Amino acid sequence: MTPQFITGMILIATFAGLLMAATQWASLSPRYKRYRIRTPETYRIPLRKRIINIGGNMAFSVSIFTVALVFFHDRLFNNEPAAGLTIFGQVLGVLLVYDFFYYLMHRTFHRRELMKFVHGVHHKVRFPSAVESLYLHPLENLAGLSLLLGSTALLGPVNAAAFLLIVFIHTTVNILVHTNMVFPHPAFKLANYWAARHDIHHGKHLNRNYASIFPFWDMMFGTYA
Q1: Peptide bond before 157: cis, by omega within 30 degrees of 0?
Q2: Which helix or strand (DSSP H or E) is residue 200 part of?
Q3: How many Cβ atoms sit within 10 Å of the Cβ of residue 53?
């Protein structure tokens, strides 16, 4: 790993933290309350429990990436020069493969046994916010990040810049789909679409909208709403 790559990972983590903090603040601010898709009257999960779970999953996520980058980086990325079109293709290919397997995993997690003991932890959050995107059972956290890293290794090693973009897009989308907010400005059109689709999954139709990034997996398998 080069110093530039390490700097890139630190910048992604910093951006994710700032985005999460900004969207969380907006969701709690009276000024932006009208932009929330749904607003809870009370929270079902005590604050202390949320802090422990979310903080623990943050640390666990960092540990997973650290282990992967230290011991398996040669399977994930390389520093060979690559054209912009190649990098674009690598990013798109990995995210498509990841989202397909995530769709299957997410749909499987909704089976009664796994929903009760694993994925049900996340669905206790009926009105998700950006920070609560990390309110998860640790096994689900491990499975999701393993899918991302495994998809990268399957098609890789990819260019180092492509790997950074993959992590950036995955992290950003995971925050945006859980904001539970829509803003009227056209600049937020894609973020609004992701948030609205995932809100349907959390609040109205638990058996719809399993995919994270691309809607056509749900369209293909008849679970789009």
Answers
A1: yes
A2: helix 189-203
A3: 22
